[in-house]
Design brief:
- The protein has three domains: about 90 residues, 3-Layer(aba) Sandwich (Rossmann fold), CATH 3.40.50; about 200 residues, UDP-N-acetylmuramoyl-L-alanine:D-glutamate ligase (3-Layer(aba) Sandwich), CATH 3.40.1190.10; about 140 residues, Alpha-Beta Complex (Protein-Tyrosine Phosphatase, Chain A), CATH 3.90.190.
- The chain is α/β, with parallel strands linked by helices.
- The chain contains 17 helices and 20 strands.
Length: about 450
Amino acid sequence: MHQIKEFENKKVLVLGLAKSGEAAARLLDRLGAIVTVNDGKPFEENPTAQALLEAGIRVICGSHPLELLEEDFALVVKNPGIRYDNPMVAQALQKGIPVWTEVELAYLISEAPIIGITGSNGKTTTTTMIAEVLNQGQQSVKLCGNIGFPASSVAQEATANDVLVMELSSFQLMGIEAFRPHIAVITNLMPTHIDYHGSFEEYVAAKWRIQEQMTADDFVVLNMNQEIASSLAKQTKAQVIPISTQEAVDGAYLADGQLYFKGEQIMAATDIGVPGSHNVENALATIAVAKLMGIDNQAIKEALSAFGGVKHRLQHAGQLEGVTFYNDSKSTNILATQKALSGFDNSKVILIAGGLDRGNEFDELVPDLVGLKHMVILGESAPRVKRAAEQAGVPYTEAQDVADATRKAYQVATAGDIILLSPANASWDMYANFEVRGDSFLATVEELKGKK
């Protein structure tokens, strides 16, 4: 890592712990900063804070005292999930103290070039795809960022011979200044996290910060299936590499069932290891990055053909007596479920859907439901999902929870069918998060296999 000197003997406040806060605190301490950690969780219930204190780092737990900002802090590094209207953050900004997220620290110390991936849907799958393709091409890859490995921790171990493949959320990107990836990917932009950002325009602006410091020596991969990408393409100094499933572009595209890069055929779309039109877009973004990184076509094809998906994101969950199970618990909105269904023959699909919605109807999902073999419906949104099923003419069963739904789906399935958990809803009516919901599905599939 680069042994930068700018934090030596500077007071830095790390606001909020979790993995990224701990990583930032330890890195800043290593760089010679005078670190204070402030976390809302009481000290006696906070093993991370206890470990940091043992390491000689000052910790203040249980509340966020505004008087703390009377100290002469040169910088605040905040947890990405803490909003900018949080009193501590707002007052720090009012005092003119820079407020970063830890990905900025990762950039400042990283010897390795960075490939940054952001977007509304598909960023984790695309990040993982890119890492696997680069690995197949004999590149030394280190995954980090929003995918679960703090960037500021991973960057400490990276050398100039590595590549940091970094998933980035809009929350993280709001806290950067000098951050500059060599390649940036924006998978797509949909109205999401509006409660945090205030408007779709502000959300897009946060995502677009990924390219703010890029130059003509860098590359930004944009999904030209979206109109917004055309206007963004005119607003960057980086070289734009377009991707499209709708037309031939001067980048990566789909034509006659084949994936191309700048006119060169790479592989058939049907050879991608995971189904769905969204995964064709993810694969095109991956191909664009791989070609920019000098990976040969055979390595790209081998890695994408072997790609088994990411847990809870259209994850292949095995077969039982000819019935195939897919865990797409991450589909927490209508668009994600539409894309999941696009990869299958509806007549063979038994769809498990429902959960916590935002009070919306599911009319726009109806065309995608037409022709489904069956639906199993659950959760708070069940009455509205049932109306959509009835409009689509799909028979349905009601279930108490995901485990019950999985068993009921298997009861109506025959060899050749697909049981797809793709809820089109959030999980919080029954589960702590979509991972817990997906794990319940996976556990029930294993239970059914055990009985056979």
